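Progress against Task 2.4 (sequence-to-structure conversion) is shown through the following example record, which the project officer requested during the mid-term review.
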Amino acid sequence: MPHTTEPIVRLIDMIFPGDTNHHGTLFGGVALSHMDKVAFLAASRHGRAPFVTAASQRIDFAAPARAGEMVEASGRIVRIGTSALDVEVTLVAEAPVSGERRLCTRGVFTLAAVKGPDTRLPLPPFAPPPPAERGVLRMAEMVFPPQTNHYGTLYGGDALKMMGKAAFIAATRHARAVMVMAASDRIDFTCPIRAGEMVELVSRIRMTGRSSIAVGVELWAEDLLSGERRHAATAAFTMVAVGPDGKAAAIRNAR
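Structure tokens generated for the chain above:
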């Protein structure tokens, strides 16, 4: 049985046409990539060691995820050995406006710690989750070399893309309406993020008006081996609900 107190790592993304197959649903390879990435982040955050995927159990696709929907991959440690652990990952599709959610697939990934000077064995025991924060959306991402500039740090444009996506998802879940970005009010970058680090985006609804929502987004960098966290950027966005005619529409179902 899965352990119920281990912290969950969550990745949320939008499904765009480039991620779909000829049926207009999420390509299976993209789904598996999301799941493996979440499993790696969950394992690395727990063990603070360099991990590689050793195996995955049978993965059955129960329902499709369609273009225009959100897809949420959540990973939780369910077994810990001396140098390997298992991460249970679920992939859930969510319709942005209706909020309807369906389980697409579930799988268990086994990740092994690579032995070396940065690896401390045995792996630590289960850890309790942090206190729940009401009204806060946390999303994890990974920084890979193609996302970096010539200094080897996260390119500012990709950081803005991540923060804009986080603001969109937070506003959409809050209003359950078609949302568009109306303004980027202020963005402050405080420190660089290196390739191989984890990025955590923390979004909060600051204000809800008749048709607009103010969203604050914090960008945190985390070294997966040491656990060191740094506040890398802060942004403020104004998102607006629009109707079928593309004009601003009243928000009626804000949570």
